[in-house]
Amino acid sequence: MLFSRFNSHLPTPEEALEGRPERAFTVPARHTVLGNPLLGPYPDGLETADFGLGCFWGAERKFWQAEGVWTTLVGYQGGHTPHPTYEEVCSGHTGHTEAVRVVYDPAVVPYTSLLKLFWESHDPTQGFRQGNDVGTQYRSAIYTHSPAQQQAAEASRDAYRTVLHHSGYADITTEILPADSRPFYPAEGYHQQYLDKNPAGYCGIGGTGVKLSAPSETNWGRSCPTGIAPAPDVTEQ
């Protein structure tokens, strides 16, 4: 990791690295596990979701294992520098977080199920870190592709915040923002499906043990209770 003050402070657009007009590297054509194209074109009827939950090696594996996911790829999102490299992102001078793009069939796996997997796979209360991984590039984030995704993400955050508070955790620091003004820049080829190529490689992804209830439109932000379920060893006060 290239340490700098921007590991604890997001750079402004003026402070960010200049970047470049196009990628400085190639991206593999197909997913090594699912066999489908990484960059598209994607079949009609599929939808896209973007998540940041710490080191993207382990995060990507969480999603490619989910039923109904057509392809996944890792990249950089939420920053200012166009077409950054991994080294630039790790410097903290681009403003990006490590992200996973998930292309999925909503008829098989609804967006709410992906949100449940997202929340339960990391600790969303840690700010600019995830476990031992420290830096702005490890912050928790959801970048939404429609008003419906934005509403569902915010409702799931509100539900999960309640049970996390009951379980002794601090407030959620996850940023939930539209993806349309926050381009997803694919990462270098060696990062794509890293844990398929290196099964014993570093993962770094671990949840809090606190569970979110089975997702549905009726219990996330619309009815009582709030759609949450504490971990089995949690005693509510």
UniProtKB/TrEMBL annotation:
<feature type="domain" description="Peptide methionine sulphoxide reductase MsrA">
    <location>
        <begin position="49"/>
        <end position="203"/>
    </location>
</feature>
<dbReference type="InterPro" id="IPR036509">
    <property type="entry name" value="Met_Sox_Rdtase_MsrA_sf"/>
</dbReference>
<feature type="active site">
    <location>
        <position position="55"/>
    </location>
</feature>
<protein>
    <recommendedName>
        <fullName>Peptide methionine sulfoxide reductase MsrA</fullName>
        <ecNumber>1.8.4.11</ecNumber>
    </recommendedName>
</protein>
<dbReference type="InterPro" id="IPR050162">
    <property type="entry name" value="MsrA_MetSO_reductase"/>
</dbReference>
<comment type="function">
    <text>Has an important function as a repair enzyme for proteins that have been inactivated by oxidation. Catalyzes the reversible oxidation-reduction of methionine sulfoxide in proteins to methionine.</text>
</comment>
<dbReference type="Pfam" id="PF01625">
    <property type="entry name" value="PMSR"/>
</dbReference>
<dbReference type="GO" id="GO:0005737">
    <property type="term" value="C:cytoplasm"/>
</dbReference>
<dbReference type="GO" id="GO:0034599">
    <property type="term" value="P:cellular response to oxidative stress"/>
</dbReference>
<keyword id="KW-0560">Oxidoreductase</keyword>
<dbReference type="GO" id="GO:0008113">
    <property type="term" value="F:peptide-methionine (S)-S-oxide reductase activity"/>
</dbReference>
<comment type="similarity">
    <text>Belongs to the MsrA Met sulfoxide reductase family.</text>
</comment>
<dbReference type="GO" id="GO:0033744">
    <property type="term" value="F:L-methionine:thioredoxin-disulfide S-oxidoreductase activity"/>
</dbReference>
<dbReference type="InterPro" id="IPR002569">
    <property type="entry name" value="Met_Sox_Rdtase_MsrA_dom"/>
</dbReference>
